[in-house]
Design a protein that fits this description.
The complex is a heterodimer. By secondary structure, chain A is α/β, with parallel strands linked by helices. Chain A is built from five helices and eleven strands. Helix content of chain A is 21%, strand content 26%. In chain A, strands 2-1-3-4-11-10-9-6-7 form a nine-stranded mixed beta sheet, with helices on both faces. Chain A has a two-stranded antiparallel ribbon with strand order 5-8. The longest helix of chain A is centred in the N-terminal third of the chain and has 11 residues. Chain B is an alpha+beta fold. Chain B has 26 helices and 28 strands. The interface between A and B is medium-sized, with 32 and 33 residues.
C-alpha cells in the first residue's frame, strides 16, 4: 500500500502515523507538504494526521482546508481515493466538506487524553473490513474539540447509509451518556462519506498500533486498508 | 565621557529611576565604576535586568557552586541552556527544570503556558528534540478562594501550550498547602533527545559571523518580567504587574522547534540561544560572554510587532518564541529559506565582533555601548546573612502522645485518599496529551514517567519530587529526601538514576531566615547527590516567593532522570494478579513528623521529618532494581506520602492495571497510626508470584536489606490486620472512587 501523510504546519501526529505505517506495518510511506499540490493518483491512502494545523486558529481545520495540498486531496477523494483523517485530520475533512457534520468543543470544555472504547458500527468498509461485527476497540482520544454534531435528520441519514463507523461505548459495547467522553451526538466517534472512501475519526488508531506500547487495537484499521488495497 | 549622541530624549537618570529599576545605590555606584560614566536609560535597563536576581543569581551563586556537577556521563553541566547526559548508543538527553511562578500567579493561563514554552526552548536550543514535559505545581489550600481559579488556569495553560507543540506532558506532581496561598509555584521540566556529537552551545564565536533573529516579532509584552516581576515580592499592587507577563503562541513554538532542528542539521550554525528572561539583552550579552567576543546589532532590523517601539523596549521585551542564532557568513540565504519554509520571521540583525562590547544601533545612532563582562559578570555575589528561623523551635518538637492512636484506620485512610496531595491526579493529566510521539511506556499515575528511546533497547524514567513540608521542618533533610525519593521513584520503574536538575523555590533572600533555609537545602541536596553519585546538570533559582511577608515553604524541587537499559523490563506500581504476594522492602519506624496524616487529621505541620539513612536508602534502591532486572517481581511502588496503607491502596487501583483487592497481615509493636500512615523513608511495596518467595528472600538476605512479607493481592476489599486484629476493611471500589474523583470534584466545582 502506498501511503501519503500530509504535513500541515502544526501537525504533530504526522511522525506517529509515519512510524506505524512505515516501520510497524512496512508500507511504502511518503510525506506530503501542505504548500505544494501533488499528483496523488499512484497513492492508495492519504492520511491527514492529528495535531493543531495552523495552530487551530480561527477553527480547527479551517485554515488547513484552504492549503494547496487539500486541492489535491479533494481531487483524489472525488476520484475514489481513500482518505483517513484522524483527530485534527477529521476536522480538516469536515472543513473541506469531504465529510458531513462538524466538531465542537468537548462537553467538559477541557482537553481529554485517555483510552476509550469504541464499537464498530459498520464492518463493511475499507477502513473496518477486518473488524467483524460488533467488535470493540480500545483506542486513545486526545482532543479539545471532538464533540461531533450533525442535525437529527442528517444523523438519521448517516445511520441509514451505514456512514457511522464507530460509536463510543463501554468495555462491554454498551453505548450510553457515561461512555461518551465528549458529548458527541449519537456517541459518534467516526464517520465516512457516502462512497465510503473518506473516513474521519477522533480516536487515534496510530497510538495503539505499535506492539511495544500497550494495546494494538488500532492496527486493525490500517490492516483493513492494507487488505483492501 | 562617551555619551550616545542622540538616544531618544530620555529622562535624566535620577535616584528614583535607579530605584524603579530595582537597582540599589551600591549597585548603581558599581555601574559607574565599571563603565566610567553614567549609563543612558537603555543601558540602565540592561543593567537592571542583567543584574536582577533572576538573571544574575547574585544571592544563590555562591551556594550553587557547591553542588556536584560531574560524572562520566555528563556532556554538559550547568551554565548552558540545559544540561546534557550521555545515554550511550551515540545519544544523549538534554534536560532542565525552570520556574514560572510569579507570572503564573498573576495570569495563570499565560504564565504557565509561557513557562512550558521557555523550558522547551532551553532544551531544543541544545540541538535536542523535546520528547517529554513534566511539571511540579503548588497551590494554596483548597479553602482559599483563588486556588481553584489558579489550578484551572495553570493546568489549562500547560495543556493548551504543551498539547499544541506535540510534546507529551507525561507526569508531574501537585501539592496544596496554605503556604502557597499568595504564591503558587509552576516549575516546568523538559527533556530532549540529541545525538551526542551534535550538541549546540550558546556561544557567539567567530568574528564576522552573522547574528540571526528567528521567530515571533518583538512586542511590548513582558518588559521587566525578569527584574521587576520575578525578582521582587508580591504586595497589594501585584495585579498592576500583569503587563510584565508574556503571552505565548504555541503554534509558533511548534514551527520554531521544527525549523531549528532543521537548521541544526547545517554545519554553518555556530551557536544559538533562546530569548527568554531579559530577551534580546541577555541572549546577546550571554552569547558574547561565553565566546569571549563582542556583538554589534542594529535594532532597526529586528522584526517588530508594533510601531514606535524604542530601543529600551526592543531590548527588554520578553516576547515569546524568539531565538538568536549565530551563523557563518555566506549562509544567510540558506537559513532564510529554511525559516521561510516554516513561515517564521527572521532577519540578520548584527554580527560578532572582536572588541568585547555589545554595541547597539538604532536608526543609525548608537544607543548602547557596554562592555560584556561587567554586564554579565559584574553583579556582586551577595553574601547575604543567614539565621536559623525561630519557628523551628516551636514546630519540630512534638510528642506522639498529643495524638491519640486509633483502633480502626478506615476513616483516616478514606480521608487521606481524598486529600488532594494524595488523590489521583487524573483530572489534571487527562488534560495533557501524554501519548503523542508514541514513546510513553508508562502513562501518568505511576511513580515515574517512562519513555522509550526509539531505535534502541533503552528507556528513560523521570520523576519530579519535593515534599516541602519536610523542607519547612528541616530544609537540609527535606532536600536530601527530595533527591532520595525522586531516585526511588525512577528505581521503581527499573531505572538507574543518572542525572538531576533542580528548581529552588524560596522566599525573600533579603531575610536571613530565608537564606538559611536556602543554604541548608542546597547543602542537603548537594550531600545527597554526592552520596548517590548523581550530577546536578542544570537548574534554576526562584526567590522572592513571598506575599505580604508570608514566604512559601522552602521548595527545592528536583527532577531525576534515570536510564533503563532494557525497555522490556519496565516496572509499574500496580498489582497485577490475584494471589500475588505483597512485601515491604525496608522497615517502618515510629515516626509521624511532617506526615500528610498529621496535616490531614490534626491540621499540624509539625515534628521532625522522617530520618533519611542514605546508606540504607542506597541498599534498598539497589535491591529493588536488582529484583526488577532479574524479572522477579510484578510491581514496585515507593512508599511515601500517606505511608504504607496509602501505598498499598494505590497499588490496588493504579491506572492501566485492573483494580484488585489486598489483605495485609502485619505483626508490629508500633502504634497503628505510625504503622499505617507514618512516612518512614527507604521503603518499597512490591508484589510477586508466590513461587518466587524463596528466591527473593535469599536475595534480600544476601544483599542484605530488610524485607518482610506483608500480605496478599486479591479479593474485593482492602483489609489490614495488625497482630491478628482487623483495623481496616473497605471495599476496594469505594476507596478507588474516593481517590479517583476527589481532585476533579474540587476543581470542577463552580463557586
Amino acid at each position: 500500500m502506498k501511503c501519503g501523510i500530509v504535513v500541515f504546519p502544526g501537525s504533530n501526529c504526522d511522525h506517529d502515523c509515519y512510524h506505524i505505517l512505515k516501520h510497524i506495518l512496512n508500507q511504502e510511506t511518503h510525506w506530503l507538504w501542505h504548500k505544494e499540490e501533488a499528483n496523488l493518483e499512484s497513492f492508495d491512502l492519504v492520511v491527514l494526521p492529528g495535531g493543531f494545523s495552523y495552530g487551530d486558529y480561527l477553527r480547527p481545520g479551517a485554515i488547513a482546508s484552504f492549503s494547496p495540498i487539500m486541492n489535491s486531496v479533494i481531487t483524489f477523494a472525488k476520484a475514489g481515493g481513500k482518505v483517513l483523517g484522524i483527530c485534527n485530520g477529521f476536522q480538516v475533512l469536515l472543513e473541506s466538506e469531504l465529510l458531513p457534520g462538524t466538531l465542537i468543543q468537548n462537553q467538559s470544555r477541557k482537553f481529554i487524553c485517555k483510552n476509550v472504547t469504541v464499537r464498530i458500527e459498520n464492518p463493511d468498509t475499507p477502513f473496518t473490513q477486518n473488524c467483524g461485527e460488533n467488535r470493540i476497540l480500545e483506542i486513545p482520544v486526545a482532543h479539545h474539540q471532538g464533540s461531533y454534531y450533525i442535525d437529527p435528520f442528517s444523523l438519521n441519514q448517516l445511520e441509514e447509509n451505514g456512514q457511522i463507523l464507530f460509536r463510543y461505548c463501554d468495555t462491554k459495547g454498551k453505548v450510553s451518556a457515561e461512555s461518551n467522553p465528549n458529548g458527541s451526538v449519537g456517541s459518534v466517534a467516526g464517520v465516512t462519506n457516502e462512497q465510503k472512501n473518506v473516513m474521519g475519526m477522533m480516536p487515534h488508531p496510530e497510538r495503539c498500533a505499535d506492539p511495544q506500547l500497550t494495546g494494538i487495537d488500532g492496527q486493525i484499521i490500517f490492516q483493513s486498508l492494507i487488505s483492501n488495497s | 565621557m562617551d555619551k550616545p549622541k542622540k538616544n531618544r530624549p530620555g529622562p535624566e537618570i535620577t535616584p528614583e529611576i535607579v530605584r524603579e529599576h530595582g537597582l540599589t545605590v551600591e549597585e548603581f555606584r558599581r555601574i559607574l565604576d565599571l563603565i566610567g560614566r553614567t549609563p543612558n536609560m537603555t543601558e540602565l535597563g540592561i543593567f537592571s535586568v542583567m543584574w536582577s536576581e533572576h538573571c544574575s543569581y547574585k544571592s544563590s551563586r555562591p551556594y550553587l557552586r557547591k553542588l556536584p556537577v560531574e560524572s562520566p556521563r555528563v556532556l554538559q553541566g550547568p551554565g548552558e541552556n540545559a544540561g546534557v547526559i550521555d545515554i550511550g548508543d551515540g545519544l544523549a538527553v538534554a534536560f532542565k527544570i525552570e520556574s514560572h511562578n510569579h507570572p503564573s500567579f498573576i495570569e495563570p493561563h499565560q504564565g504557565a503556558a509561557t513557562g512550558v514554552g521557555g523550558i522547551m526552548r532551553d532544551v531544543f536550543t541544545m540541538g535536542a528534540r523535546p520528547i517529554a514535559l513534566m511539571n511540579s505545581l503548588r497551590f494554596g489550600e483548597l479553602e482559599e478562594p483563588r486556588t481553584r481559579f489558579l489550578l484551572n488556569g495553570v493546568v489549562d495553560g500547560i495543556s493548551s501550550y504543551g498539547n499544541c507543540t506535540g510534546v507529551p506532558t507525561v507526569g508531574g506532581e501537585i501539592y496544596f498547602d496554605a503556604c502557597y496561598n499568595g504564591n503558587n509555584l509552576v516549575n516546568a521540566f523538559c527533556l530532549g533527545l540529541v545525538k551526542s556529537d551534535r550538541i549546540f552551545l550558546a556561544g557567539a564565536g567567530g568574528v564576522g559571523n552573522q547574528i540571526l533573529y528567528v521567530g515571533s516579532k518583538t512586542g511590548r509584552d513582558g518588559i521587566h518580567g525578569a527584574s521587576l516581576l520575578a525578582s521582587s515580592v508580591f504586595d497589594e499592587n501585584t495585579e498592576d504587574k500583569r503587563p510584565t507577563v508574556q503571552v505565548g503562541d504555541p503554534f509558533t513554538e511548534k514551527l520554531l522547534i521544527e525549523a531549528c532542528l532543521e537548521l541544526f542539521e547545517c554545519d554553518w550554525v555556530v551557536g544559538v540561544q533562546d530569548m527568554g528572561a531579559a530577551g534580546l539583552t541577555s541572549s546577546s550579552f550571554e552569547m558574547a560572554h561565553r565566546a569571549e567576543t563582542g556583538v554589534f546589532m542594529d535594532l532597526s532590523k529586528v522584526p517588530l510587532r508594533e510601531e514606535g517601539m524604542i530601543p529600551y523596549e526592543i531590548l527588554l521585551s520578553e516576547s515569546q518564541e524568539r531565538m538568536l542564532f549565530v551563523i557563518k557568513p555566506g549562509h544567510e540565504k540558506e537559513a532564510l529559506v529554511i525559516l521561510d519554509k516554516w513561515g517564521l520571521d527572521a532577519a540578520i540583525i548584527g554580527e560578532v565582533v572582536e572588541e568585547p562590547n555589545d554595541r547597539i544601533q538604532f536608526l543609525g545612532q548608537e544607543v548602547v555601548n557596554l562592555p560584556i563582562i561587567p554586564v554579565v559578570d559584574g553583579a556582586l555575589d551577595l553574601k547575604r546573612p543567614t539565621k536559623r528561623p525561630e519557628y523551628l523551635d516551636e514546630v519540630v518538637h512534638i510528642s506522639l502522645t498529643e495524638f491519640p492512636d486509633f483502633s480502626r484506620g478506615d476513616a483516616a485512610l478514606k480521608k487521606l485518599l481524598a486529600c488532594p496531595n494524595i488523590a489521583s491526579k487524573e483530572w489534571v493529566y487527562e488534560q495533557y496529551d501524554h501519548m503523542v510521539r508514541l514513546n510513553t511506556l508508562v502513562l501518568p499515575g505511576s511513580d515515574a514517567a517512562v519513555l522509550r528511546i526509539k531505535d534502541t533497547d533503552k528507556a528513560i524514567a523521570i520523576s519530579v519530587d519535593c515534599n516541602s513540608r519536610y523542607c519547612y521542618l528541616d530544609p537540609y533533610e527535606g532536600a536530601a529526601i527530595a533527591v532520595a525519593e525522586a531516585c526511588r521513584n525512577v528505581v521503581c520503574s527499573g531505572a538507574e538514576p543518572i542525572g538531576l536538575t533542580n528548581c529552588l523555590n524560596f522566599g525573600n533572600p533579603e531575610k536571613p531566615e530565608i537564606m538559611w533555609q536556602f543554604q541548608q537545602a542546597v547543602e542537603g541536596m548537594g550531600d545527597a547527590c554526592r552520596f548517590f553519585d548523581i550530577p546536578v546538570v542544570s537548574g534554576n533559582v526562584s526567590l522572592y516567593n513571598e506575599t505580604k511577608g508570608e514566604a512559601i515553604y522552602p521548595t527545592p524541587t528536583v527532577a531525576v532522570v534515570g536510564l533503563i537499559e532494557d525497555q522490556t523490563k519496565v516496572m509499574t506500581q500496580g498489582f497485577k494478579k490475584s494471589g500475588d504476594q505483597i512485601a515491604l522492602i525496608g522497615f517502618t519506624m515510629e515516626e509521624l513528623g511532617g506526615t500528610e496524616y498529621l496535616k490531614t487529621m490534626f491540621d499540624r505541620s509539625a515534628g521532625k521529618p522522617p530520618v533519611l539513612d542514605r546508606k540504607h536508602e542506597k541498599q534498598v534502591q539497589d535491591f529493588c532494581r536488582e529484583l526488577i532486572q532479574r524479572g522477579l517481581i510484578s510491581s514496585a511502588h515507593d512508599c511515601s506520602e500517606g505511608g504504607l496503607a496509602v501505598a498499598v491502596a494505590e497499588s490496588c487501583f493504579s491506572p492501566g492495571c485492573q483494580t484488585l483487592g489486598a489483605t495485609l497481615t502485619l505483626e508490629s509493636t508500633l502504634r497503628n497510626d505510625t504503622l499505617l500512615f507514618g512516612e518512614t523513608q527507604s521503603r518499597f511495596v512490591i508484589s510477586f508470584p508466590e513461587e518466587r518467595i524463596n528466591e527473593i528472600e535469599d536475595l534480600a538476605m544476601a544483599f542484605p536489606v530488610d524485607f518482610s512479607l506483608i500480605g496478599k493481592v486479591g479479593g474485593s476489599h482492602f483489609t489490614i490486620m495488625v497482630n491478628g486484629k482487623e483495623i481496616v476493611k473497605q471495599e476496594i471500589d469505594v476507596l478507588k472512587q474516593i481517590w479517583k474523583t476527589s481532585l476533579g470534584n474540587y476543581a470542577g466545582q463552580t463557586t
